[in-house]
Every structure is written in C-alpha cells, then in structure tokens.
Amino acid sequence: MDCMLHGVAKSSVLSVNGKTENYILDTEPGLQESLKCAVQNHIRDEELLWYREDGRVDLKSGNKINSSSVCVSGISEDDNGITFTCKLQRNQSVSISVVLNVTFPPLLSGNDFQTAEEGSDVKLVCNVKSNPQAQMMWYKNNGILNLENHHQIQQTSKYFQLSITKVKKSDNGTYSCIANSLIETKTKDFHLIVKDKGSTVPIEPIIAACVVVFLTLVFGVIARRKRIMKLCRKDQGPQCRTAL
C-alpha cells in the first residue's frame, strides 16, 4: 500500500514554459514563439508528443525524452486560436495545451466598385478579420449612414454587410466600412453606381412576329413554286429548266 501511495504522489506532470495548467499565449504577427514541454515528478524516462491542433508534430530523436521544444515561427493572423498540445507517449491522457492569441489590427476587403440598376437589390459585403474584434460602422459620403427602410445590416465574425433593397438614384455614393479596434481604426470604401432602369422589351411579341414573317416567306415560296410549275406544264418544250 505504501508503494501505491508513493506512486500516486510521484505521478508525472507536464509543464510548458514553466506553467502546469493550460494557458493562452499572447503574441503578434511576425513574431516567433518557443514552447518547451517538460516532465515533472517522473521516475523513468518519458517520451513526449507534440500536436498542432489534431496533427502530430514531427520531432527529432533528441527532442522527445523528458523535455521537448517546438518553435512557432512566422506567426500570422491565421494562427490565431491555434492549439498546441504536449502529451505523454505512454499515457496520452496526461497532456497540457497552449492556445495562441494573435492580436492584430482590422483587415478589410471586398468589392470596391458595384453597379446596379435602379430597382434592383444590392449587397455591400465588407470582409473583416480582427483580434480583438472591432466595432463596425457604415458611413456614406463621409457621414454616418442614416438607415432607411430599404437598408439592412448584418454582422458576423467574418463580415459586415449592408443590404439595399430596390436601390434608388439617391443611393448613389461612396459607402465606407469602418472598423474600430483597440489597436487601430481601418476604413474601406465601396463605390455604388445606380443606373437608370432599362426599358424591358417583352419577348413574346417578338417571337410571334418572327413566326409570322417566317410563315409568310414559306407560303410565298410555295406559291411561287406552284406558278412556275404551271408555266412549265403549259410550255412542253425541253427548254424549261427554271431553278428555284
């Protein structure tokens, strides 16, 4: 019994950069971070495993036993929220995780110019990436956009969208997507041009007219052929070789 109690007291514990609990690592794009996993309270050599999300990290042979380090270089905005986990090879329930918190100013993108016909529907989609999340606003012609009944705003963690139903000439202008974060404020302009509504020509009358013209031509050719055949029968001479 004493041996069992002793074994429990000496059960292996993992730490990363000296921390024995899961934690969040604050970092920025372009930086390089080193994560060192170590086994504490071990009574024998322990092999360690590293995972990036669900994918296993390939470690060199000298970087596995009792202590193991991974270097995260060239950190980018896409690395935000990525989890690195260190595990014991013989008992993978013993693990510790580090989540990257990559802070960066707002990144905005979208279709700069849009042309719409009067009376149609338009969507101005401002794609946004930001950490921390930015406060979003729409401006029109350098002033706060006054939302009307045909305006609708939708926001997710990935985009900020302005929908305009049945656009009018008064909707012409430059719309600015403004993202205000604790780090920086960014703006992207969207230029909307509303054209006059084109006159729509009904297709059915055109098709009917084409059919009438075609049938008139066909009947005309048939009538001409009959007249020529009658002339040929009256003139029994061998010279009758009229081409149609």
UniProtKB/TrEMBL annotation:
<dbReference type="InterPro" id="IPR007110">
    <property type="entry name" value="Ig-like_dom"/>
</dbReference>
<protein>
    <recommendedName>
        <fullName>Transmembrane and immunoglobulin domain-containing protein 1</fullName>
    </recommendedName>
</protein>
<dbReference type="InterPro" id="IPR003599">
    <property type="entry name" value="Ig_sub"/>
</dbReference>
<feature type="domain" description="Ig-like">
    <location>
        <begin position="105"/>
        <end position="191"/>
    </location>
</feature>
<dbReference type="InterPro" id="IPR051275">
    <property type="entry name" value="Cell_adhesion_signaling"/>
</dbReference>
<keyword id="KW-0393">Immunoglobulin domain</keyword>
<keyword id="KW-0732">Signal</keyword>
<feature type="transmembrane region" description="Helical">
    <location>
        <begin position="205"/>
        <end position="223"/>
    </location>
</feature>
<comment type="function">
    <text>May control cell-cell adhesion, cell migration and proliferation, cell morphology, and protects renal epithelial cells from oxidative cell injury to promote cell survival.</text>
</comment>
<dbReference type="InterPro" id="IPR013783">
    <property type="entry name" value="Ig-like_fold"/>
</dbReference>
<keyword id="KW-1003">Cell membrane</keyword>
<keyword id="KW-0325">Glycoprotein</keyword>
<keyword id="KW-0963">Cytoplasm</keyword>
<dbReference type="Pfam" id="PF07679">
    <property type="entry name" value="I-set"/>
</dbReference>
<dbReference type="InterPro" id="IPR036179">
    <property type="entry name" value="Ig-like_dom_sf"/>
</dbReference>
<feature type="domain" description="Ig-like">
    <location>
        <begin position="30"/>
        <end position="97"/>
    </location>
</feature>
<dbReference type="InterPro" id="IPR013098">
    <property type="entry name" value="Ig_I-set"/>
</dbReference>
<dbReference type="GO" id="GO:0005886">
    <property type="term" value="C:plasma membrane"/>
</dbReference>
<dbReference type="GO" id="GO:0042127">
    <property type="term" value="P:regulation of cell population proliferation"/>
</dbReference>
<keyword id="KW-0472">Membrane</keyword>
<keyword id="KW-1015">Disulfide bond</keyword>
<keyword id="KW-0812">Transmembrane</keyword>
<comment type="subunit">
    <text>Homodimer.</text>
</comment>
<keyword id="KW-0677">Repeat</keyword>
<dbReference type="GO" id="GO:0005737">
    <property type="term" value="C:cytoplasm"/>
</dbReference>
<dbReference type="InterPro" id="IPR003598">
    <property type="entry name" value="Ig_sub2"/>
</dbReference>
<keyword id="KW-1133">Transmembrane helix</keyword>
